[in-house]
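Protocol step 4 of 5: obtain the predicted structure for the target chain.
Materials: sequence only (see below). No template structures provided, no constraints applied. The aim of this step is simply to have a reference model before the mutagenesis design in step 5. Sequence pasted as it appears in the construct record:
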Amino acid sequence: MHLTNNMNQIKGIGIISYFSILLRESGQIKFQLIAVFVLTAAVLCGCGTTEPAAPVTPTSKNAYEIYGKVYHPIDSAKGFQQQGVASWYGKQFHEKKTANGETYNMHAMTAAHKTLPFGTMVQVRNVENEKTTIVRINDRGPFCRDRIIDLSFSAAKEIEMIKNGTASVEIAALGTDDEVLSAADKTRPNTKPDNLYFTGDFTIQVGSFGNPANAEKLKKSLEKIAQNVHVVPIKKDGLTFYRVRVGRFNSLKQAQRMEQHLEQNGFGNVYTVAWDL
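Step 4 output (structure tokens):
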């Protein structure tokens, strides 16, 4: 996760309890992204000190190392429960990249956890006041003593822990964001997922050309099987390239579905990228 540096950092949010449904295991982003983004974490969460994170060393699939300790993200969050201390992070990391490649939004209902799969929906209960909230895991941390989860400013505000900075909590995995999306599609068709939870901003790149005519040709082919196909010009080393991209997605899972759809229809070498790249 983007480690929390200040005990007074912000996290938070209000949430929609009907999203508390039993879910199944969540897919995880490739370790390479974890390594890249955990390296950007600059300070220990809530430990009151500011120091750069130790180099991240892969030791096995999806594993990562922080401050000499190796963490092994689990494959499934089914039945996962945990007790410990929650902290929160906010303004210092607002709009910076999280460990799964999304953009951190201190006003969204998200959180960081050391080992839960990205995309896991988690209920957090403040045992001191019985307030509860639901968050989506999209970051790694907190890497500090007994702290088990780092909440966004809004999530921390929801369970009234902003003033103290930390709180004793119980957390329980509800399932994957994928199932939440499916449930939302059934109850609220033709609506986008709630941005309080889904803070990603992804698109699929299919090709890049020096000749705009070739880009337009590919665009027309893609429009037969996909919506929101667009050509994005970019200048590099004095030259202009025309990138052909498909869609704009709130979550990595959504983008991966489109990537698979394109591959199944004969479009090779497609890959997911951040919208702003």
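Step 4 remarks: Residues 12 and 156 are 4 Å apart (CA to CA). Helices lie at 31-38, 153-158, 177-187, 212-222, 252-264.
Proceed to step 5.
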